[in-house]
Structures are given as C-alpha cells and as structure tokens.
Amino acid sequence: MDTNQITLIGQTHTQLINGTIEDFKEIVSEITGNKLKKFEIATTITNKETKDKIKTILSEKVIKIKFNETEIKAKIENHSYSYSGTEQENTEYTFRIKIDEQDPDLPPKWTQQEGTILQVLENYAAIKAIKELLIEKEIITKEEFTKKYVDIGLKYAKDKAYFITYGYEKSSTKKE
Questions:
Q1: What are phi and psi of 30, to 5 degrees?
Q2: Cα separation of 65 and 73, whole Å?
Q3: How far apart are CA 120 and CA 41, in angstroms?
Q4: Is residue 66 a contact partner of residue 6, using CB atoms and an 8 Å limit?
C-alpha cells in the first residue's frame, strides 16, 4: 500500500502522520442507509511527544481524519500501539487504528445509556401529562392515581430492577 499523509484532528490536538490506509471498505448503515467508510490506519512514528498527542486524539469519541482529499468525521473503533525495549525520546512506535466513519444522520456522542435516560424522561413526561389530564377531566382523583401507582410500583419495582441489571425477567412478573 502507498504511504499517505493523514491528519488526525481532535478537540485540542492535530497531528499529521505518514501511514497506510488498509482494509478500506464502504459499508451501508443498517440504521440510515448511508454509505460509510471503514478502514484501518497503520503508521510508525519515532517521537514520544507525538505518540502522546496521538493517544490524546484517539481517546476522543469522534475525531476528524483527512487523507487523499477526503475528510471524514470518524469514531475510533479500536486502536493499539507497540514498541520494543524501553521508552526513550526517539522510541519507534507502531500504531494500528481502526476507523468507522461517523454517520452524519446520527448523533456523534450517543450511547445506549444516554438513550435509556432520554426514554425514561420522555416516559415520565407522558405519565405526568396523562395523570394531569385524567385529574382535570375528573376521571380519577390524585389520591386514586397515587394509590394505583404505588400498588403497581411496589409489585413490579424489584423485578424490573432485576431485569434492568441482569437482562432477565424473573418469573413473578412474566406474562403467562
């Protein structure tokens, strides 16, 4: 493979490296249908300061990468580096960096935990709205709602906490 000039751009650091682009593929996102690039960068550098700068950039969730007139926002799927002997000022470091292009139609820093929190907040708002509508229309009283909520909460809270923690629903709450 040909050596390319590759620029890694993070929030606080930018680093130009010479490396090769390997295993280059275009994939289609299962979620959005967008064509995305997936590849690996291999490079060797000989400077501890540069190594530290690269590690800082790679620790970010999303970075920019420029090469061959291409610029993408990327998620670092995985990276590793190695060296021989003891680290000194001009130690030779070999990096391998697996890159997945960030889908432009998806939030760049989304995690499953953030999705869960957002869903919990949306469910809370929906329940609160339903409660207020039912009380306003005098279908139920606040006390009736609170009693039912407590009855259901006490009945299912322990089992739901178990499910959230372990991903397994205990038989006491399974539907027969």
A1: -65, -25
A2: 6
A3: 39
A4: yes
Q: For residue 50, what are its two tokens?
A: 């540069």
The b-or-e profile of 85-123 (16+ CB within 10 A means b, else e) is eeeeeeeebebebbbbbbbeeeeeeeeeeeeeeeeeeee
What is the DSSP secondary structure assignment for residue 99, as one 8-state letter?
E
CA angle, residues 114, 66, 70, in degrees to nearest 5: 100
β-bridge mates for residue 99, sequence order: 39, 76
Spell out the per-residue pLDDT of the chain, length 176, in tens. 577 899 999 999 999 999 999 999 999 988 889 999 999 999 999 888 899 999 999 998 789 999 988 899 998 888 999 999 888 878 899 999 999 999 888 876 667 777 788 888 888 899 899 999 999 999 999 999 989 888 887 777 777 776 777 666 665 544 54
0.85 exceeded by pTM: no
* Gap between the Cα atoms of 107 and 148, Å rounded: 38
Q: Which of 97, 114, 87, 94 is CA-nearest to residue 10?
A: 97
